[in-house]
Specification:
Helix content is 22%, strand content 15%. By secondary structure, the protein is of the alpha+beta class. Strands 1, 2, 3, 4 and 5 form a five-stranded antiparallel β-sheet that branches. It is globular, with a radius of gyration of 15 Å. Bound molecules: zinc ion. Zinc ion (ZN) binds next to loops.
């Protein structure tokens, strides 16, 4: 399992977008495995989205994300409309190196990260159905 907490520079897999000046700051702050959707696929990173308003915690299919944003697209500091019916909240992304691993919020922008600590708790099927749901 790779670490997603590191601050290493470009790794041996050499992401094609590494020299893009617009994302230079991202490359200093984020590990290679999280910098693009394609890199997350290669490193088998698990991704979820969490709504800031209703708390809905959803699995994210990286194939869907590649179709929508391209493999060089990034989910860092990206928010999208919540997929829960009747919610108009904004959802952010989280990543984990694998099943059972820690989840890291993909928000680096202080303005976007603001309020997360006091935000709505994540809501899963277990929240809705109780612990017997598994
Ligand atoms: Zn929501």
């Amino acid at each position: 399992m790779i670490s997603l907490d590191g601050h290493q520079n470009a790794g041996p897999d050499g992401d094609a977008d590494y020299h893009c000046p617009m994302t230079a700051a991202l490359h200093i702050l984020w590990p290679v495995a999280l910098r693009s959707i394609g890199a997350m696929q290669r490193h088998k990173v698990l991704v979820r989205s969490q709504c800031r308003r209703c708390g809905a915690l959803m699995r994210v299919d990286l194939d869907d994300m590649v179709a929508r944003h391209g493999s060089s697209g990034s989910l860092i500091d990206v928010q999208e409309r919540c997929r829960m019916v009747a919610c108009d909240g904004a959802a952010f992304y989280l990543a984990s190196p694998g099943y059972g691993g820690p989840w890291r919020t993909l928000l680096g922008d202080p303005g976007l990260a603001e309020g997360l600590a006091n935000g709505v708790a994540p809501v899963t099927a277990e929240t809705l159905l109780g612990p017997t749901a598994r």
